[in-house]
Amino acid sequence: GGAAGGGGGGGDDDGNGGGAFNSNDSDEEKKRNDDKDLDESSEDEDNSHKIFGSWFVVHPAAIGKKSQTQNFNPVTYDDHVHHPAMFQYYRLPEEIKKEDKPTIDRLGAVTGHPKKAGWMRSTKDEECKVVKNLDELGKIDYSAVKRGMKVLVTSGKTEEQLSELDCSLESRQSRSHKFFISPSGKDKMLDITVSVVFQGVFGPRGYRLGRLAVQLYRIPSDKEKSDPADGKNGLAAPQPLGYAPYELQILNTPDALGRIVIQHKPRKIPVEPGTFQVVVGAAAASKYSIQVTGTLGEDAETVLNREFESSMKKQSRLTECSNELNELWTSMRLAERKISVCQGLIEEAESESSRCESDIEMCNNELSEDDELMEMTEEERNDVFREIKVLEVEFSHWCKLFATRTQEKKDIKEGLEHMAEMRRARLKEKENLKTAMEKIRQIIPSATASILGPGRATEVALKLNAPLNLGGGNASSRWQAISAVKNMITSSLTPAEEVRRLYQREGFKALTLEERQWSMLDRIRNEVKWEWLKIKEEEEDRAREARGAKAKKRKYNAAIEQFRIDKSEIDRIAETSFSKLQRREVVCKKLLNKYHDDAEMMKRKAEMLSSGFDPHLAAEVRAKFEKTWTPTEKEWVTVDKILNPSAWVGRVKENAQGFDRHRGDSNLIELTEEEMREAGEADKEKMDKIGKLLGSGGGGFGNLVKQASKTKRSKQNDKPLGKWVCAYSRVEILKIWSAKNGEDLKSNDEERCWKLLKNYNGDYNEYIEGMKAIEERERRMKETHGMDWVAIRSDVKGDSLEVDIDARTRTVLKELDKTISFRNPFMDSAVLHVAPQRFPTTVLRLELERELDRLLREQIYERERASKFLVEDSSDSDAPGHTDDEDSDEDEDARVRNAETRRRERRAKMRANRAKEDVKVAKKRILMENKTPTEIAKAQELEALGFGGCLACKTNPCKWISNLDVTKVMKRKEQLADELNYIRKHPEMLVLDSQVALSAQRGGSTRFKRQDLVHELMWESRELERRMKLNGIDKELHDSYATRKEFMEVKVLHGYSTLLWTGNARRALEREHNKLVAITTASDVVDDILEWMLEGWYFGERESKQVVAGYVPSIKKDGFIKPGTETTKATAIKEEAERKKKAKAMGLLGGGGGG
What pTM was computed for the model? Predict the structure, then answer.
């Protein structure tokens, strides 16, 4: 019995430990030992020994009295918590034999004590460095990596080395489990963790607790055993490794499984590869499972490459998200417009079903009238029945269409909601990607610079559109970065990309005016390529906000701001030819062409340059005088006169008279063959350099010369330079020119002619295309009698019309957006008729809107066609009263003709009645089409209001009422005027009694000083005047919105009659109305405050004269009566009601007494 379990012992710095052991060290002694130097601690711990055996052998009390009294406290000991293996005994150093001390590999397998072995510490010589993330990776010095330091990145990734389940051991048995750590591969093992979970077994006496001891060893290799010099001290015995942290060990109890954990975390990392084994010993029968895992340190270069690939995928995904958002937004716009189109079709189906219903009702009325009058024949009644049947079929058709279109509208709304949800998801994904890319752009380039050098880091930064700051680096780092940028510029950067990089590297001020103007256009057109600038501006704004400053307003001068235009407008300018653009648009077009992103164009120009061809060289030679020609030019002239005779008409100049910039130039006259050979070699070297720069293997001039020299031909009959004359015809020259290289030619003269054509005339295919264009122009001029311009070109074939309705709608919508932002009165478009045409912009916009609506209606009709609704006329046999016993076919034909005639007459009558209504509707529609949206909305409001309706109140009749009793106000003004007149007539009176003043009427004193009374009376007079003016302004403002005229007469605004435009009158009246309302509101608020303070005894104690307060439903139903003006009005209402009540009681009102 007793406490069972298994514990891993604390290992020492030399690699010992890990098994179960006993100890006699107290807690204080352990603490002191931990604070000592590592070597001293290691020397003391070497004297600690583990003991195994039965309970009576391994118990601390079994060692002696000293263990019982000093090392083992029976009071605190608990056999369910403490295991004997947790203790150890101490043996003096002299008792240990020297040969018993194990020899370990201190370089490759040094194991640290838990408190002294730092986790992931590098060795002193820094052969290997471990970092936790890419942020720490960016802080590593590249020079150390260059010297050979290994850098590993740990991200918590583990690898399982060994896993065995359901193992069992009997008492005093042991078993070893081996595993191997491979030295191959870039990823290395940083530590080893051994975890053993065990339990007891059931015996005759019940459950017996399990007890295990575990130790981790490294087995030396054969080389280490056989060669002490190379084998690091010649290790022959297995090396004990690891330590067992106390807090990770768990005893096996009746209620819980036991666990032993051994950790091997060496100071020198990674773990030295080789064969390892775990020895498990059982003090009691046990079952266990063992698992060995290790933390992997990935190679930094591998991690960086993986993160860079992931970053590029995220960057491309960010662009895809932007494109998807644009497509979703376009789809949502189309869906919104489709809903309005579908609503129009629903109204059409509803109106048609109503028409059929009314027609059926009219036919039924005709039949009911005939039942009484008996005026219709049987055939006429049958025709009416047939007409009803046809109308019923039509009614059913339109009802089904109504239901289908209603469902279509519902489906469109559901799809719109789904697209909105998708758009929200894409916006969230885009925001997350932008946040991730911001972090990536800050981390990846700096980490790459630390591991792979500044050159590779610069390439990564450029591809990620991220800034790379190498200011802290040395000159070598900066030169490597510049070299990387140069390589990219000479290999793949277009003029547009060069300006972007210059902006990113040196800032906005480093650009010229044209580059600044183009950058404004490009920031709108290619937002993704300017993400770095947006991030930089946001960081600047955050920094300014942190300092307490406002965000910087980035506004440029007028020369640059004028290029801040819409993206659709920029695309239109880029697609339109120069002849169809205005002056400002031509400038934009030139900027877009100058700073382009066309890599193919650059490649073609570079190939021309590498082949030695100058497109202006032939024209310059033709313009020169004969005496100034070089020998090579003389030979080419003999070829070109045969090839292009029309180019030499009138250009042959025998005498060099007048100004000639080549006169006296010895470099161009009478050059020797040696000088020409030297010039050719210089040109060859120059063109070879250009060819290497472009990466072209066989397109350079030097390669052409080299290939030509491979063909060994006899040069005995070759004429000297400048003496050769072309003897071929034009057809033969073209055949020679069409050869791909000089080796395909037969003679030296042909090769000489071929080289001249390549250097002066360029590419053969381009020449043929140019000649075809010239012939086509001559043919056209011949047909048009010398006119090069043709109004209508019937021979030009147009593009095919897009048959996909969805793609067609998107094209039309895109063109419609261009027309909205287009400022010119005329616009060229090929969307409507698949041929370039010029339209007035407003007309094109209307036509595109009609085309878009037509396409959306066509999409709705597709669903209706799928239902296959067919309206068929009913046959005569289906009509009631039909008989088959006709006398002859002639009678049948006559009856049918008569029925058809009557049917046409009846329909004509119904159409005439409907035509009158249609004419009214058409007139209204025509008037509505010529109106603006504001006028249309106003007309619809008028129609809804009907005759006599008020446009200002939006009611019929008008509900405007005056908020002022003008009669009472005028009487009050007369009283004030009389009182002021009386005061002016008695200037000698300094104190007066007055009942007219407002304060006296409100219960105040009736005695005033002369100045105070005049002030109060004048103030009240002005207040009444202002309120009357407000009332008049309100009336005229109401009339201005109610009038249908373009002008109106205003009197209260200025005090005299004035004729104003209605719009101007509204603005002036609104401004004056707002001012008066503000003054009146402020005055009322102040009066209410003063009344409230008066009632609250702020000015002294007084008896209140107000009889109403609080919530009085009979006076105010919607809330409490506020103190102030409302209280005064409520008191007056209450007093008036009381007065009437008393008068009625006295018989003065109502049914009072007789006589």
Answer: 0.51
